[in-house]
Amino acid sequence: MTKQKFFANPGIDEMPRTTDVIIIGGGPAGTAALWAIERLAPGTKTVLIEKSDRLGAGSSLASLENYRTCWPALCLAKQMERSVEVFHNADEYLGEGAAHSIAVKERGYLFCAFNESQAAVLKSDVQRLHQIGLTHIEYLDSNEVAHRFGWVGDRVIAAKYDPVAGWLDSNALIYRYAGSANSSKILLGIQDVRIDVENGYVIGVTTPNGHIAAPKVVIAAGAGSRQIGRTAGIELPVILRPRQSFTTGWRHQAFPEDAPMIIGAAPYPHVRPEARDGAIFGWEYTWHNKNVDAAYGTNSKHDAIIDPIYPAAPLKDPRFPSIALALLARQFGHAEGEGFASGNYLRGISHSIGYYVYRDESVAYSTGTDGIERPYDSERAIIDACPDVPGLYISIAHVGHGIMSSPAGGEILASKVLGLPLPDPVFREFGLDVPWAEFDEGVL
Ligand SMILES: Cc1cc2nc3c(=O)[nH]c(=O)nc-3n(C[C@H](O)[C@H](O)[C@H](O)COP(=O)(O)OP(=O)(O)OC[C@H]3O[C@@H](n4cnc5c(N)ncnc54)[C@H](O)[C@@H]3O)c2cc1C
């Protein structure tokens, strides 16, 4: 008889009383942690607690589900290399049939340059990537762009191309992680989980459905992580920025179904084919929403917020789809009614929003020769033990790549929880005590 794994709003009798590890949050980070703990120490009893009635109810719902290998910071490059290995061998790592269900489409990423100075930046990016061993990343000159991707048009004079990139079904990935953790119980619909700490040590969690004793608890709740941390008496050092995407049911004819993800120049509007005839778009712009400041008072210090606003829908910028399309049309030189400037794109749009979770300035800064600490927007997640509360672990701040990095992210977290060496020493840079890493800055 197969053991029941999923429990939706379990009654007190169904609640596990004790377990080895509790993971709070059922997104890519939390479910990958379940999977990796089972792989590294089979039989470890785990309980995952998710507040929603389904897994993957956070930022992954709004995501473009992309992955890429071209990361200039070594820790991120290694994290993606390992993660892509898992995606490429999904049946082996995630169980039979996983490759079919996660449906990897390896179509590449094409970063486009429209003038000489942008081309020079892409060229130097590629040099850096080659230096750290990513020799599959190519710099394409105008002839090569025209030869391989002529449909992008003659405004594109050069490109950086990552052929080991693409997209996948993130929901299927999350459920595959969960399904392959044989010793886990997954509790859905659990609101208001609180971490219990006694004499400074984690002893479990309390939920409205009952208490679960455990010596180790992992916070992997995306934008909700800071609030859970407070129940253990700590402030987790993260900030949130709302990010949007939109899907169209239409794509202009010249933009083929087998196209790579294309990324324009600053401010980097990006788009890829979606389903058969559609497309999915993103664009990350400096976010400072005065309405939010006035209504919620959470936005005075950063161009970011501290506590999430749920649902995030009121934060959607209604101009976002039309501005992203206009930017792409301008950069690619499409006249009114043509290409990205076609009015057909604006019919039947599905507009989404989620949070990017970043390190805050207390854990992401460089120190100059003058001794002054300068905060920066780090791309590095925090995957670590919390030194102030023994037994508490975090896998948070996965910014805009928490799906693509989740396999290796899960393994890093699992090695911390299980007291094993890190899979690669460079993963130490995901620690709370490493404020800066080389080339760790916004790359889109
Ligand atoms: C517009 C947009 C585009 C993106 N594009 C990409 C992309 O192309 N590729 C990529 O890799 N990443 C992308 N991302 C980023 C990616 O979605 C996130 O990095 C990733 O989802 C983070 O995973 P997570 O598990 O840390 O958090 P989440 O995905 O937010 O999951 C957190 C989970 O915890 C649950 N939770 C929250 N609070 C509690 C609580 N109190 N108790 C119990 N459960 C709780 C939530 O319901 C949710 O299920 C994008 C994000 C956005 C917003």
Model description:
This protein is α/β, with parallel strands linked by helices. It has 2 domains: 6-98 and 169-237 and 377-430, FAD/NAD(P)-binding domain (3-Layer(bba) Sandwich), CATH 3.50.50.60; 105-166 and 240-359, D-Amino Acid Oxidase, Chain A, domain 2 (2-Layer Sandwich), CATH 3.30.9.10. The chain has 11 helices and 22 strands. The strands form 5 sheets. It has an 8-stranded mixed sheet. Strand 21 (382-385) and strand 22 (392-396) form a beta hairpin. Helix 1 (28-40) packs parallel to helix 7 (170-180) and helix 2 packs across helix 11. It is globular, with a radius of gyration of 22 Å. The mean pLDDT is 94. It binds flavin-adenine dinucleotide (FAD). Flavin-adenine dinucleotide is lined by residues 24-30, 49-52, 56-60, 62-66, 193, 220-224, 228, 243-245, 282, 354, 356, 398, 400-404.
Helix content: 25-40%
Order the strands across the largest sheet as they lie in space: 6-7-5-15-16-17-14-18
Overall number of domains: 2
CATH topology of the largest domain: FAD/NAD(P)-binding domain
Gyration radius, rounded: 22 Å
The residue ranges in which pLDDT falls below 50 over 5 or more consecutive positions are: none
Global outline: globular
Structural class: alpha/beta
Bound molecules: flavin-adenine dinucleotide
For the largest beta-sheet, the strand count, sense and barrel status come to: 8 strands, mixed
CATH homologous superfamily assignment of the largest domain: FAD/NAD(P)-binding domain
CATH-defined architecture of the largest domain: 3-Layer(bba) Sandwich
Query: CATH class of the largest domain, anyone?
Result: Alpha Beta
Number of strands: 22
